[in-house]
Specification:
The chain has 224 residues and is an alpha/beta fold. The termini are far apart. 42% of the residues lie in helices and 18% in strands. The protein has a single domain (2-219), classed as 3-Layer(aba) Sandwich (Rossmann fold), CATH 3.40.50. The longest helix is centred in the first third of the chain and has 26 residues, at 2-27. α1 packs parallel to α4 (96-103) and α2 packs across α8. It contains eight helices and seven strands, in the order αβαβαβαββααβαβα. The radius of gyration is 17 Å and the shape is globular.
Length: 224
């Protein structure tokens, strides 16, 4: 019983900090994406493409979460956007407190879009709110179509799911229809995107959707 109480207290404290983060983002009309996936899905490559396509139209900030290295941050920095690195040093997820510390080192003034690239893990990141507007989960065709049923929480909590590396599907046994059916059995309202970074497939559609989400939040803020 005491272990359950400890876990409950941790999640409650995280939710309280997440609400504070969300309030700060809302005050500045910043649309926040919590980008989740397992390692190797290609989410950093997707993020690079999104930055390249949207940077001329809006001000973007990035928070990079990783266990130890700064390799992904170096890739994002080369795109010319502000980025803050969080090294969890073994922790399998980012939490609201880490995000609070990170935004203290990031100039939020004028930002319209903030993307938090979470630690590569399909389990823990979905459990911790960080103040985001939406969670997006990336899965690659090379990982297999069974992941939604194995790791349902990530797909249940996501507003969008990106199926990446669709150009490689013919070289795998990935069952796309089964994948869609399994995700919809968990989350009926999810939005799907199919992408390939090497072939530049589906990324324009993804960027248009993100742009619309950013504009919706800004318009809602103006209407208050």
């Amino acid at each position: 019983m005491s272990e359950i109480k400890v876990v409950t207290n941790i999640l409650k404290a995280n939710d309280e900090l997440s609400a504070l983060n969300s309030k700060k983002f809302d005050e500045k009309s910043i649309y926040v994406i919590n980008l989740m996936s397992s390692p190797g899905s290609g989410k950093t490559s997707i993020l690079e493409k999104v930055i390249t396509k949207l940077k001329p139209e809006m001000k973007i900030g990035i928070i990079e979460g990783d266990l130890y290295t700064t390799m992904d941050t170096q890739r994002i920095e080369s795109k010319g956007v502000p980025v803050v690195q969080i090294n969890t040093e073994g922790a399998c997820h980012l939490d609201a407190n880490m995000i609070q510390d990170a935004i203290n080192n990031l100039n939020l003034n004028g930002l319209e879009l903030l993307v938090v690239e979470n630690v590569g893990n399909l389990v823990c990141p979905a459990e911790f709110e960080i103040g985001e507007d939406i969670k997006i989960t990336v899965l690659s065709t090379t990982e297999g179509n069974d992941k939604p049923l194995k790791y349902p929480l990530a797909f249940e909590k996501s507003g969008a799911v990106i199926l990446n590396k669709v150009d490689l599907i013919e070289y795998t046994d990935f069952d796309k229809q089964r994948f869609y059916d399994d995700v919809r059995s968990i989350n009926e309202t999810v939005t799907f995107f199919e992408t390939s970074c090497t072939k530049d497939l589906g990324l324009d559609e993804l960027c248009i959707w993100i742009k619309n989400k950013v504009e919706e939040k800004q318009n809602a803020s103006k209407g208050k």
